[in-house]
Amino acid sequence: MSINFDDIHTEKKQVLLHKMMQNVTAEIHQLDRGAKTDKKTACPICGHGGISQFAEKYGFNFDRCEQCGLLFCNPYPTDGQVDYYYNSDMKNFENDFFMESFENRVKIFLPRIDIIKMYKTQGSLLDVGSSIGIFIEALNRIDHDFAITCCDISKDACARLKDRFPKANIINADYKALKKEGKYDVMTMWDTVEHIIDLDNLFGTVQNLLLEAGIFIFSTPNTK
Length: 224
Hints:
The chain is of the alpha/beta class. It is built from eight helices and eight strands; from the N terminus they run ααβββαααβαβαββαβ.
């Protein structure tokens, strides 16, 4: 299945989103000037050393991995910049875009749920970067026996999650703030891992959060 961008996001909305993006990125560039992250010399996903400059957008440089095709911001933004972006008016407006295409996007997650069911059919599930909850909705439409926890940086997204999924545990925080060890049977991170600044920190946190037989499933949409 496919989603036609222009059918969902009208020209008027695209123009407004572009203006909002210009404003928020200009503000972001003024943040954390003394706390810059290091420029990557290898792909943060596959580790390949062959990366090349791909484009510059809104003042950020994007590189491309010559092996796996990942596009990533290099250097990554700081934690403060990331938090500012995900709680901006522009991001809240973008969440409205996701709502308009909600039903079509639900279908994307059905094959991913089939993968989870190959390994786990019950227990505690932590979804990191839940956004407005499209994956959670897809999961709720099948027979499952998971206790669901959602974690997202965006206050707006968490408010929408609480409203739509009153039975789920909603955590408005960065994944690094989750300190409870050995709690989850499944941890998911859909279309999010390429946004993570420190992958070593991520996988260390995942190891601490999962039960001994727990599984971590994620996707990297920008790779071939």
